[in-house]
Amino acid sequence: MSLSLPSSPPANEVYIAEFSLDNAGDTVQSAPSGWNFIRSESTGSGGVADFWYWYTTVGAGNDPTTVTWQLAAPSNTDGWIACIDGINPAAPIDPNNP
C-alpha cells in the first residue's frame, strides 16, 4: 500500500500517515524505514468493517515522494499523509485519544 508525500518534502516537519484496510485478515507486515507505529483500531463488523492504522515520522528533507507499507494480504485501501509544522516531533499525537 503506497502513499505520496509532497514533491519536495520539507525537513523537520512531522508526517502522519493514516490508512484503512477492509480485509479482516490483512495486517501490516512492514512499514517504510523510519516510520513508527502510533495505533490501530477497527470499526464496524462483518462485511462493513474497516481497520485503521496510524504511523508517524519526522521529515529529513530528502525523503522519497512515495512510501510503501507491506500488507499480509490483498485489501482495498485508502489513506493519506499529513505534513505538519510546529508540533512536538517526539509526541505528535496522543495515541490514547482518537
Question: What report would you give on this structure?
Answer:
The strands form 3 sheets. The chain has a 4-stranded antiparallel β-sheet, with no helix packed on it. Strands 1-6 form a two-stranded antiparallel ribbon. Strands 3-7 form a two-stranded antiparallel ribbon. The protein is built from no helices and 8 strands. A hairpin with a 6-residue loop joins strand 4 (36-43) and strand 5. The model has no long low-confidence stretch (mean pLDDT 83). The chain has 98 residues and is an all-beta fold.
Explain the layout of strands and helices.
Blueprint: E1 2-4, E2 14-21, E3 28-30, E4 36-43, E5 50-58, E6 66-68, E7 70-71, E8 77-84
Antiparallel strand pairs: 1-6, 2-5, 2-8, 3-7, 4-5
Summarize the structure.
By secondary structure, this protein is mostly beta strands. It has strands spanning 2-4, 14-21, 28-30, 36-43, 50-58, 66-68, 70-71, 77-84.
Keywords:
two-stranded antiparallel sheet, four-stranded antiparallel beta sheet, single chain, 98 residues, mainly beta, 8 strands
The rounded distance between the terminal residues' Cα atoms is 23 Å
Main sheet: strands, sense, barrel: 4 strands, antiparallel
What's the mean pLDDT score? 83
Q: Spans of 5+ residues with little confidence (pLDDT < 50)?
A: none
- Hey, roughly how much beta strand do the residues contain? 35-45%
From the helix content, strand content and strand pairing, which structural class follows?
Answer: mainly beta
- Residue share in helices? under 10%
Kindly state the number of beta strands. Answer: 8
Counted by DSSP, the helix tally is 0
